[in-house]
Fold this protein.
Amino acid sequence: MKKIAIFASGEGSNFQTIYSHVQKGDIQGDIVLVVSNNSQCGAVIFASRKGLENLIVNDTLYPNPGTKDKLLLQALIKAEVELICLAGYMKLLPKSIVKEYKDRILNIHPALLPQFGGKGFYGIKVHKAVIAAGAEETGVTVHLVDEEYDHGKIIAQEKIKVRPGDTAEALAERVLKVEHNLYPRVIKAFCKDGVVWGNNQQK
Ligand code: GRF
């Protein structure tokens, strides 16, 4: 059983999907901690409802970045976290955590990285940019996390066709469905074998 921490800032639909795979025993893991910068978000509400341990870390609660980063790392270590899954987490991870958890932090991004990623590419903005660029395909990427937004080694991708007349919202909906399928598969493999899955040649 791998001990998993989920980091989320939004609705938490990926988190909820991961949770249900854990509940079913499909992912051999245990969600031991949920971290967010936003105490009001769907992910935190869900975590509380399910009785999962959650931790809110943001600049309002901890104006000193050193204190904030230290507290977060200590919480992860105390909970004996072995895998961190970012699921719509809007903040950069502190360097100390990237270092401590090297090759054990995953993120999911709603496009085919390295395109349409990086600072400012989040939420509906990603899909708007895909449509504005006239791209014929988009997709989902799961990658390892480093110190830059959407930048670490790509470990799994799935492509999705952009249909003529697609709106960003319609595309977002199709992409999210694929996310809900791909992310649990990658996490399942990590929990089973202890290493990231796929290594699909990019980067
Ligand atoms: C997803 O599109 C994910 O790829 C991105 O943020 C979104 C989170 O959605 N990183 P949700 O909170 O899991 O519903």
Residues 199-203 have pLDDT under 50 and may be disordered. The domain at 107-203 is CATH 3.40.50.170 (Rossmann fold). Residues 37 and 57 are 5 Å apart (CA to CA). The longest strand covers residues 29-36.
